[in-house]
Amino acid sequence: MTTLVRGGHRARYRVVLLGGGYVTLHAYAGLMRHAGRAVRAGDVQVVVISTDDAHSFHGFTGEVLAGLLPYDRTRTPLVDAMPHAHVVLGRATAIDAEHRVVRYVLADDECDPRPGSPSDTGHERVLDYDGLVVGTGGREPATTVPGLAEHGFTLRAPGDIAVLTDRVREAAAHRGLRRHTVVVAGGGMAGVEMAAAVADLGGARVRVELVHSGDAILPELRDDQPRLARRADQELRRLGVRVRLGVRLASVTEDHAYLSDGTSLPASTVIATIGQRPVQVPGLDAHRDPRGRLVTRPDLSVVDGVWAAGDAACVVHPTSGEPVPANALWAIKGGEHVGRNLARTFRGRPTKPFAYRGLGQAASFGVGRSISELYGIPFTGWVAWVLRLTFFLRFMPSRRKAGQVVADFARHAAHGRSTPVPEPAEVAVAGLATARTA
C-alpha cells in the first residue's frame, strides 16, 4: 500500500469508511474501542469519504417537525464525531476489490463549473485501503414518483429536513382562512411519526392526509403487536390525521398530490416515506442481491477486505435467516460489529459472526404519547416515550447534543411549546430553498 505518514509515524493499515451515517460512525467507534491506541499512535489510519460534512440523526426528526427540538440537535459535524479520522468531503465513484483501491471525486471538484476544472475533466482520485467499509446507506426513490423530487420532500435528502421544518412551521403559524394540507406518503413507522408530528404542531390550521398503499398502516406491527398498532390508529385519530388506505402517491405538482385511484389532493407540502434504495458504488456488482444491496457473509464482510452494513447491505438475521430490517438500530449494531472485526484482522485474529438479535421498535405521537416494543414486550404512553427517549439519547453521536435535547424537553415541560426554539440558520435555509426551486 501507499506509504502514509501521520504524526511522524508510518501507518501500517488504512481503513476507509464510505458514508457519514450510522454504519460509519459506529464502525469508527468499534474500531476505536478495540484498536484506539493504534489509531492514535498513527499505526492505523482512518479515512472517511462522505458527501455530507455532518451526521444526521434521524431519531428525532418528528420532534424537530413538531417544534419540540431545533434542527441543529440532529446534526453533528463528522470531524467532531470522529476526531481521529481524516474526513474527506467527496463521493466514492468505484471500488476495485482486487487491487484494494477506491476511486472518488472531491465535492469541490464536482461543484466547480469552470472549463478545465477537475469536474470538467472527469478527474478522479485514488485511495488504497487495507479495510473498506461500505456504509453509504439508502435514499428514498424520489424519481419513481413524477414531480416528487421537484416539489416534495424526503427524510434523507441532504437539506430537506431543514427546509421542510421551516415550511411546516410557517403553515402552523398561518392565521388566514385557508387551511394548509400536508400529504404524507407511506404508512410505516417513519410516515406515521411524520404525520403525527405535523398534526401535533399544526393543530386546526393544518390538515394532514396519510396515504398508504397497504390495507393497514404499520404492517410491521399488525401481526406481532396488534395492541400497539391499534394504539397508533387511536393516536392518529386524536390528532385529526386522515388515513387513506389502498392507494399510493402517483405524482406531485407544486400545489397538488395525485393518487393512484385517480383522486387528487390540494397540497402545500408532500412528504414521502416510501422506502429506500441502497446508494450503490460501482465495483461490487457481482455481490448484490436483486434489490441492489451488498450480500454479506456471517461476519459482515462482502469479500476479503470489504465490509458492509446498514441500508446498503443485505445482512441475514443470525436466527431467522431473513434479512434484517433497514433501520438505524441494525445499522448501528452492524457498524459496531464491523469495527470490532477490523480490529481483529489487524491483530491477525479470526473474525466473529454477527450475532445481534434485535431490540425492538418505537414511534412517538407527542410528548408522553408513544408506542414501543422491547424484546417483544409492548409499552404505551409515558413508559414507552421514556424508553424511546433513553434509547435515542444513548446512540446520539454527541454527548453535548444529547444533553441539549434533555434540556429542550425540560424547557418544554416547564413552559410548553411557546418557548422559542432556535431555528436553522436563516442563510442556510434560504440557500437550500433556493436550490430546490432553481
Number of strands: 27
CA radius of gyration is 22 Å
Q: Helical stretch count?
A: 14
Average per-residue pLDDT, rounded, comes to: 88
Strand content: 25-35%
Description:
By secondary structure, this protein is α/β, with parallel strands linked by helices. Helix 7 (160-173) packs across helix 14 (426-437). It starts with a strand and ends with a helix. The model is unreliable at 1-8, 113-121 and 418-438 (pLDDT under 50).
Topology:
Layout: E1 5-6, E2 9-10, E3 13-18, H1 22-41, E4 44-50, E5 54-56, H2 61-65, E6 75-77, H3 78-81, E7 85-96, E8 101-106, H4 107-111, H5 118-121, E9 125-128, E10 131-134, E11 138-139, H6 148-151, E12 153-154, H7 160-173, E13 180-185, H8 189-202, E14 206-212, H9 219-222, H10 226-239, E15 242-245, E16 249-252, E17 256-259, E18 264-266, E19 269-272, E20 277-278, E21 294-295, E22 301-303, E23 306-308, E24 313-314, H11 328-346, E25 360-364, E26 370-374, E27 377-380, H12 381-395, H13 399-415, H14 426-437
Parallel strand pairs: 3-4, 3-10, 4-7, 10-23, 12-19, 13-14, 13-19, 14-15, 21-24
Antiparallel strand pairs: 1-2, 5-6, 7-8, 8-9, 11-20, 16-17, 17-18, 22-23, 25-26, 26-27
Helix pairs in contact: 1-11, 7-14, 8-10
Summarize the structure.
The protein is of the alpha/beta class.
Entry keywords:
438 residues; alpha/beta; eight-stranded mixed β-sheet; five-stranded parallel β-sheet; disordered N terminus; disordered C terminus
